[in-house]
Amino acid sequence: MTTARPELKIDGLIAELLALGQISEAEPPVVTRVVFGEADLRARAFVKSLCEASGLKVREDAVGNTFARWEGSEPALAPIGTGSHIDAIPNAGLYDGCVGVLGGLEAIRVLGKLGFKPRRSIELVIFTAEEPTRFGIGCLGSRMMAGLLTPEQALALRDKEGRGLEGWRAQAGFKGPLNSVAASRGRFHQFVELHIEQGPLLEQEGTDVGLVTHIAAPASQRITIEGEGGHAGGKLMPGRKDALTAAAELILAVESAAKSTGAVDTVGTVGICDVFPGAVNSVPSRVLITTDVRDIDGARRDGVLASLASAYDEISARRGVKITTELVNADPPATCDPAIVSALERSAIAAGKTYRKMVARAYHDSSFVAFIAPVAMLFIPCRGGVSHRPDEYASPEWIGGGVHVLSRTLAELAS
Ligand SMILES: [Zn+2]
Description:
Blueprint: H1 11-21, E1 31-33, H2 38-53, E2 57-60, E3 66-70, E4 80-85, E5 88-92, H3 98-113, E6 122-127, H4 140-145, H5 151-155, H6 165-172, E7 190-196, H7 201-205, E8 209-215, E9 217-226, E10 230-231, H8 243-260, E11 267-276, E12 282-283, E13 286-295, H9 298-319, E14 322-330, E15 334-335, H10 338-350, E16 355-360, H11 365-369, E17 375-380, H12 396-414
Parallel strand pairs: 4-6, 4-7, 7-17, 8-16
Antiparallel strand pairs: 1-5, 2-3, 3-6, 8-15, 8-17, 9-13, 9-14, 10-12, 11-13
Helix pairs in contact: 1-3, 3-12, 8-9, 10-12
The protein binds zinc ion.
Zinc ion (ZN) is lined by residues 85, 96-97, 130, 195, 364.
């Protein structure tokens, strides 16, 4: 860890990050902010008030994507976008998403204090529901902006209790037709997202910032395994159709299929396993699992999905269970815009920061903004590569370095 003092005075930003972290459904320092929940709405209000106090004009769309605009001298030109998300999965930390939102705001404030006058407007964006917690689909707001999730598909989304997007957004105060959310290409002239790495490379190498060249693409499935329940004592082992032991084989198949490509960029995860009826003395009759397979190479990832499909057929036939798969999403990988990456590179050099080019292995709102604008991402280190945990941490020096590079980049792009 570097002990150098940050060159930018970002004490205010750090205080704002800590204050935002106090807004949580869980006891701080644990951060839980599920979209449209009480904490998410308070967090939105907090960030909007900071934006307004900084002289930005705030607007929200029908699904709650929020745009805080610094008007340029040529307001008719497409703006430069920056930003990220402030929702957080259960039991998360302070920095994922929030560094990109509050750090983006800080970069704008730094430029303002320096007397910079943007030619293109700069818009700070807070995307709705980057995390899939509530509706099972990630990047809801940016996905709808990109037109990759239609209003009909959005209205069909349900939470665990069967409650839909419409009820949730109405309660949160977001109105208007959902078909007004989609933006056309050119909505942003360019878009750049600051984010913690969520991996260990930058910290291990002692590199200040990462310039993202590719964003890996996730594909996610919801899989139901239906077997035959019964009394754990009465139902003898021969002829059992235990849905959970079948699910165990599926889970291991996901692991070995991801490893089988031999590429470090292929990863496969089962993160949910719901067992019915979930009693100690009952043979599981039904299991729901989710799979998440990612790669920077879309074809290689789809190859893993195809090999899994035949593995599921084999397990189903051999164990006599019914396996139903439902594709939740399969998104293409994004390639970052070389012109923005070059601007980031020039800014890192000018700011005296060390940098490396790298791949984003988690998906981000930028993956979807890429469909309507050239994008790039700027990573800063996070301790131990830890993210989506309460002990997630990025030092003030790291955050200051990212904000410094981002502010120079925004200045160049908006000039
Ligand atoms: Zn994030």
